[in-house]
DNA sequence: AAGACGGGGTA
DNA sequence: TACCCAGTCTT
């Protein structure tokens, strides 16, 4: 038996049960694929169930407020996925009468749908013969053929796509694509793959050459930037605080947070008190300020470390907010979509 | 071609 | 710690 057949046989015997495997409804497949981008099944599953529960159809999602979508997405990360998800739902509901595109080429035009996701939807929903190449596929192919071209190089992307084209079973693209991904996730794992019991261990080139553990090759590690976040936690009569939506570029776009003073390095109370944002908020307002915890809370993103401190500012009258900030009752703050860093603070403090 | 973009799991 | 996860978009 050859590679695709063995893979499919293995898949039919070992696949996990997942809700999106019970359907070919493009709405549900699309939703699951967006959620699962750079995300483990175990982490994405509850979000998928929640989204299907709140938005059973693409029209329900299209009619939602972005803030509500972001709130449901809270904690999953890569929030542009949620914003693009909403944009695409509105586009399909309003411009395509709720009907998804049915080809790889047309699916690729949707916001948030790249090469992988367009291939996944086209093959799973419409049996189009297009190979998916995700992290699992890179790993399986690089090992099976002992290819050391970096998977994140232009050459590597091209090369592995070509290999995937050569391997895909044109009679059952949907099953093959899911099989190779599931195989990578469960059997040909990044660390400690089960080569001893692998159905492909008699023909795996990397196993033969002893290079399994070092494949696939990936270029460069990004250097992590340090940032210093000083958050101002207002407590007006112990019942209100100030919250603000992040706008523009950068992390956490359109999510909410507390008023923020970002600095180049560690600063103290004196710096905060002399900061213009701080002074404009508290112009002629009596306040009491304390540093919540001496130690930094270090929030680690993949590409930056946020050295975070929270300053508690108690007042008896409302600060002087401008149009960008909102004074909100403490009982309402959990309704806003916030990054995990802020959510954790809210849970520990309020 | 290289960066930006989250948060959590695993060894 | 370091690496990885059913990647995509921007610069």
Automatic annotation (TrEMBL):
Query: Could you tell me one molecular function GO term of this UniProt entry?
Result: purine-specific mismatch base pair DNA N-glycosylase activity
**Known EC number(s)?**
3.2.2.31
> Which part of the chain is the HhH-GPD domain?
35-186
UniProt keyword list: 4Fe-4S, DNA damage, DNA repair, Glycosidase, Hydrolase, Iron, Iron-sulfur, Metal-binding
Catalytically driven reaction(s): Hydrolyzes free adenine bases from 7,8-dihydro-8-oxoguanine:adenine mismatched double-stranded DNA, leaving an apurinic site
Highest taxon, organism lineage: Bacteria
- Into which EC class is this enzyme placed? hydrolase
The cofactor required is:
[4Fe-4S] cluster
Q: Does the keyword DNA repair apply?
A: yes
Q: Which SUPFAM superfamilies does UniProt cross-reference here? A: DNA-glycosylase (SSF48150), Nudix (SSF55811)
Q: Is Hydrolase among the key words of this record? A: yes
InterPro entries hit by this protein: A/G_AdeGlyc_MutY, DNA_glycosylase, HhH-GPD_domain, HhH_base_excis_C, HhH_motif, MIG/MutY, MutY_C, NUDIX_hydrolase-like_dom_sf
Cofactor binding description: Binds 1 [4Fe-4S] cluster.
The protein's matches in NCBIfam families, at most eight in alphabetical order, are given as:
mutY
PANTHER family to which the protein is assigned, alphabetical: ADENINE DNA GLYCOSYLASE (PTHR42944)
Question: Which protein family is named in the record?
Answer: Belongs to the Nth/MutY family.
Q: What does this protein do?
A: Adenine glycosylase active on G-A mispairs. MutY also corrects error-prone DNA synthesis past GO lesions which are due to the oxidatively damaged form of guanine: 7,8-dihydro-8-oxoguanine (8-oxo-dGTP).
Q: What protein name applies here?
A: Adenine DNA glycosylase
Q: Which gene encodes it?
A: mutY
């Amino acid at each position: 038996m050859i590679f695709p057949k063995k893979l499919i046989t293995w898949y039919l015997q070992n696949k996990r049960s997942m809700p999106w495997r019970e359907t070919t409804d493009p709405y549900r497949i699309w939703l699951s694929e967006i959620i699962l981008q750079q995300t483990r099944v175990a982490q994405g599953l509850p979000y998928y169930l929640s989204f299907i529960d709140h938005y059973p159809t693409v029209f329900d999602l299209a009619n939602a407020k972005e803030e509500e979508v972001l709130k449901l997405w809270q904690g999953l990360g890569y929030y542009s996925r949620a914003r693009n998800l909403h944009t695409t739902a509105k586009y399909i509901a309003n411009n395509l009468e709720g009907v998804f595109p049915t080809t790889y080429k047309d699916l690729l035009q949707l916001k948030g749908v790249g090469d992988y996701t367009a291939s996944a939807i086209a093959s799973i929903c419409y049996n189009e013969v297009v190979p998916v190449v995700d992290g699992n596929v890179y790993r399986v192919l690089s090992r099976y053929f002992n290819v050391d071209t970096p998977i994140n190089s232009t050459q590597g992307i091209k090369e592995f796509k070509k290999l995937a084209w050569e391997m895909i079973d044109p009679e059952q693209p949907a099953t093959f694509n899911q099989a190779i991904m599931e195989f990578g996730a469960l059997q040909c794992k990044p660390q400690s793959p089960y080569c001893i019991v692998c159905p492909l261990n008699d023909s795996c080139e990397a196993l033969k050459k002893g290079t399994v553990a070092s494949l696939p090759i990936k270029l460069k590690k990004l250097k992590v930037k340090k940032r210093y976040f000083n958050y101002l936690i207002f407590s007006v009569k112990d019942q209100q605080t100030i919250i603000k939506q992040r706008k523009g570029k950068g992390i956490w776009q359109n999510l909410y947070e507390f008023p923020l003073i970002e600095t180049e390095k560690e600063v103290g109370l004196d710096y905060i008190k002399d900061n213009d944002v701080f002074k404009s908020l508290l112009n002629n307002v009596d306040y009491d300020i304390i540093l919540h915890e001496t130690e930094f809370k270090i929030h680690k993103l993949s590409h930056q470390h946020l050295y975070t401190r929270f300053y508690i500012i108690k007042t008896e009258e409302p600060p002087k907010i401008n149009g960008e900030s909102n004074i909100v009752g403490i009982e309402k703050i959990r309704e806003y979509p916030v990054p995990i860093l802020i959510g954790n603070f809210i849970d520990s403090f309020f």
